[in-house]
C-alpha cells in the first residue's frame, strides 16, 4: 500500500507581531525578521497607541513605526504594515480589536492562506498570545537579551550631554537607525519632562522597596457629568504633570471609598454641593484594577460616576495638587485621548461610551 504524502500547510497570508516596542530593540528586530521569513508580509500591532507620553510610553505610535521601518532593509520595508491599537484595559475587547484590525488589513480571499501570530512566551504578560484561536501560533525562543525596560531606564537616567556615551554602550541592543533616532529625540522638550517624571517614579518605587510585600495602592476617582460636560483637572505634579485626570486620590485610613471620593472632589475642585445632592446623583461605582493601569505600581481605583443632570454648571476652582480645573464638553473628550493620565480616558469611555 502506498503511503500518502504528508499534508502541506497552506501558505501564510500574513504574519502578526504584537508589542509596545518602547523602544524598538534588537530582540524585536530579530522577531520581525522571523515573521518576514514565514509570510510575504507582516502586520506589526503597536500597542499603547494613543496614550499620553510617559516614561513607560515615551514614543508615539508614529515614532515607533518610523524606528521599525528604518531598522529594516529597504527591500523589506514595503512588506510591513502597522496597526496602532489603544490599550483597552479589557482583554476581550482588545483581542477583538486586534483580530478585526488585522483582518481588515489582510482580508481573507480564496487561497489567501492563514494568519500566523509570531511571538515569544516571556512570562505571564505574554498570555495574550493564546487568545487567537484560528490563527497559526508560531512560538519562538528569546532571540536577543535586549530589554525595553532596561533601555528606557538607561535612556532617561542619562543627560543630554552624556547621551552619546549612553547610546554607544547600547550599540548591540538597538539598530543604528534606532540609535540615531534616540539621539535626535532627546533634544525635544519632552525628554526633559519625562526624565523628571522618571526620576520621581524611581524614587517612589525605591521608597516602597523595603516593604515586606509588594504594595497594592487603593485610590478613588470621581467622574462628574453635568449638562453634557465632565469635570476634569490638569495635574499640577508628577506623575502625569500637565495631563487631564478625573479628581481623585488615595483613600485615607478612616474613610470609606465614597467619603474619599467626595473629599478628593472638594479638595481638587472646590465643588460645594449638598451631601444629599451628591447621594442622589451617584449612578455607579466600579473598580478598575488592571495590573498595568498605573505607573506608580499596583493601584486599584474605585471610580464613582455622578450625574447632575441638566442643571447649570456648578462653580469650581483648582485646589490641592490640581494645576487647573474645567468643565469639558463630552463631545470633545475623544479628541483628547492622548492627553489623559494613565487609564483615565478609558474610565470615561467605560461610563460614557466615547469609543463605541
Task: Outline the fold blueprint.
Layout: E1 12-19, H1 26-38, E2 42-46, H2 61-71, H3 74-77, E3 80-84, H4 91-105, E4 114-119, E5 136-139, H5 148-156, H6 163-169, H7 176-185, H8 189-207, E6 217-226, E7 229-235, E8 244-245, E9 248-250, H9 257-269, H10 275-281, E10 282-288, E11 299-307, E12 322-329, H11 344-352
Parallel strand pairs: 1-2, 1-4, 2-3, 4-5, 6-11
Antiparallel strand pairs: 6-7, 6-9, 7-8, 7-12, 10-11
Helix pairs in contact: 2-7
In short:
With 356 residues, the chain is α/β, with parallel strands linked by helices. It has helices spanning 26-38, 61-71, 74-77, 91-105, 148-156, 163-169, 176-185, 189-207, 257-269, 275-281, 344-352; strands at residues 12-19, 42-46, 80-84, 114-119, 136-139, 217-226, 229-235, 244-245, 248-250, 282-288, 299-307, 322-329. It folds into two domains: 12-191, 3-Layer(aba) Sandwich (Rossmann fold), CATH 3.40.50.620; 217-352, Nucleoside Triphosphate Pyrophosphohydrolase (Alpha-Beta Complex).
